[in-house]
């Protein structure tokens, strides 16, 4: 049995403390996933913690032998998207039309060094639909293999490649139109051939 | 450059940019999550003791619902509320004496409480005429009812058409039915009403 499977089995048998091993192993990727979606460190922390607790509750439904990471990230991603949608509703119509451009609450997110270039790229990605954003974050920022991306976004593995390609095409259009200085210099702009 | 080649190049570019991304420091959540997990383990979301109460409340609610549905008037009222039953009630009232001004007749109790369903033919045999019905519309239910000495006709369902009408006191009526049905009944000496009830 893989290390995660052994821990999960122990937790299922009533050893709640054993769950700490899973939390410590996956909290970096879970937190980064949440942060990329909600773009606010304090909110991302809450979302990540809630995600681990929900995963604990649902652990009896986890299929042993399957990778734990994408299963966990699916929970965290859904919670983060729910948070973004709730934030959009709170912001009203304007928030709904332009999902996350800046953190709603100045918090620790501003305390770390984020280059102007990174902020611009994240702003451009935030202009995309939520499902495009998530698939780009999972593949390019978190370096998940396509099989795990498929589990995380609850899609067939065969569709991930095409969804990634479409998301990149839409991102390219946003960058070329609104952030041309960000575009890679060795690629000509313009329509597809 | 082909689309595929361009997409590959953008993918590489994104990989490079994303690799340089900075993130806030990951918080240490293990102790907090495990503390929450301990609480969850001690007090599951549906605690023992709460489940039986929930089950009992559910059973009570279901029994009340079933009892409500079992009473025909209530069932009819619910059906009409949700638009499942569409109906129309025609009442032919006693002919008032010449010096009395007719007044609104109080709404009779629901038919289902007053009588039993019969076929239209049985009703016709008892009252001595064939009730006039709107062209092309068959009533869904016909009841023969003892209602203050009233002959009351309507039709309910095919399953209830075989019953006999003999055990109900019925006012006599010798007038044949025709297009002047209402007027004929109101002059035959009996108080009689016809209920039509149509399925949608």
How would you describe what is shown here?
The complex is a heterodimer of chains A (193) and B (200). By secondary structure, chain A is mostly helical. Chain A is built from 9 helices and no strands. In chain A, helix 2 (19-38) runs parallel beside helix 4 (68-91). The termini of chain A are far apart. Mean pLDDT of chain A is 85; it is low at 100-111. Chain B is an alpha+beta fold. Chain B is 40% helix and 12% strand. In chain B, the strands form 2 sheets. A 3-stranded mixed β-sheet of chain B has the order 1-5-4. In chain B, strand 4 (151-153), helix 7 and strand 5 (192-199) form a beta-alpha-beta unit. The chains are: A mainly alpha (193), B alpha+beta (200). The A-B interface holds A 11, 14, 16-17, 19-20, 23-24, 27-28, 31-32, 35, 41, 44-45, 48-49, 52-53, 56-57, 108-109, 111-115, 117-118, 121-122, 136, 140-141, 164-165, 168-169, 171-172, 184, 186-188, 192-193 and B 1-3, 6-7, 9-11, 13-15, 17-18, 20-34, 36-38, 40-41, 45.
Question: Which key terms come to mind for this protein?
Answer:
heterodimer, A: 193 residues, mainly alpha, 9 helices, 66% helix, B: 200 residues, alpha+beta, three-stranded mixed β-sheet, two-stranded antiparallel sheet, 7 helices, 40% helix, elongated, disordered C terminus
Rounded average pLDDT of chain A: 85
Task: State the order of secondary-structure elements of chain A, H for helix, E for strand.
Answer: HHHHHHHHH
Task: Report how far apart the termini of chain A are.
Answer: 49 Å
**Main sheet of chain B, how many strands, which sense, barrel?**
3 strands, mixed
Major interchain interface with per-chain residue totals: A-B, 48 and 34 residues
How many runs of DSSP E, i.e. beta strands of chain B?
Answer: 5
Report the oligomer. heterodimer
* Strand tally of chain A: 0
Helix content of chain B: 25-40%
Residue stretches of chain A low in confidence (pLDDT < 50, at least 5 long) are: 100-111
What is the average of the pLDDT values of chain B?
62
Number of helices of chain B: 7
* Order of adjacent strands in the largest pleated sheet of chain B: 1-5-4
Give the low-confidence spans of chain B.
104-108, 146-200
Largest sheet of chain A: none
Please state the overall shape of chain A, judged from the principal axes of the Cα atoms: globular
């Amino acid at each position: 049995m893989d290390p995660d499977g052994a821990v999960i089995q122990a937790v299922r048998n009533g050893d709640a403390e054993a769950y700490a091993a899973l939390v410590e192993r996956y909290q970096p990727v879970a937190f980064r996933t949440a942060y990329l979606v909600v773009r606010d460190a304090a909110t991302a922390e809450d979302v990540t913690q809630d995600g681990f607790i929900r995963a604990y509750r649902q652990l009896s439904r986890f299929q042993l032998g399957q990778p734990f990471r994408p299963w966990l990230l699916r929970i965290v991603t859904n919670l983060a998207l729910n948070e973004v949608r709730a934030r959009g509703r709170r912001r009203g119509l304007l928030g709904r039309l332009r999902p996350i451009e800046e953190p709603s609450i100045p918090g620790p997110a501003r305390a770390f060094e984020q280059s102007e270039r990174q902020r611009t790229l994240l702003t451009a990605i935030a202009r995309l639909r939520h499902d495009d954003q998530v698939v780009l974050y999972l593949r390019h920022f978190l370096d998940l293999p396509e099989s795990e991306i498929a589990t995380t976004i609850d899609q067939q593995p065969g569709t991930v490649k095409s969804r990634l390609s479409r998301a990149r095409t839409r991102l390219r259009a946003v960058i070329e139109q609104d952030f041309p200085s960000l575009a890679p210099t060795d690629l000509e702009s313009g329509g597809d051939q | 450059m082909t689309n595929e080649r361009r997409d590959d190049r953008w993918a590489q570019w994104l990989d490079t940019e994303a690799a340089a991304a900075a993130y806030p420091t990951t918080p240490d959540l293990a102790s907090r999550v495990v503390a929450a997990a301990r609480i969850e383990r001690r007090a599951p979301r549906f605690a023992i003791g709460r489940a039986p109460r929930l089950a009992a409340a559910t059973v009570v609610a279901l029994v009340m619902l079933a009892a409500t549905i079992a009473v025909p008037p209530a069932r009819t009222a619910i059906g009409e509320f949700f638009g499942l039953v569409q109906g129309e009630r025609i009442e032919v009232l006693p002919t008032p004496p010449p010096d009395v001004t007719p007044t609104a007749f109080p709404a009779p109790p629901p038919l289902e409480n007053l009588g039993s369903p019969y076929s239209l033919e049985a009703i016709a045999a008892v009252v001595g005429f064939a009730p006039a019905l709107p062209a092309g519309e068959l009533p869904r239910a016909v009841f023969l009812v003892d209602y203050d000495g009233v002959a009351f006709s309507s039709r309910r369902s095919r399953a209830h058409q075989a019953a006999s009408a003999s055990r109900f006191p019925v006012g006599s009526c010798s007038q044949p039915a025709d297009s002047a049905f209402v007027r004929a009944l109101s002059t035959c000496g009996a108080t009689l009403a016809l209920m039509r009830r149509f399925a949608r």
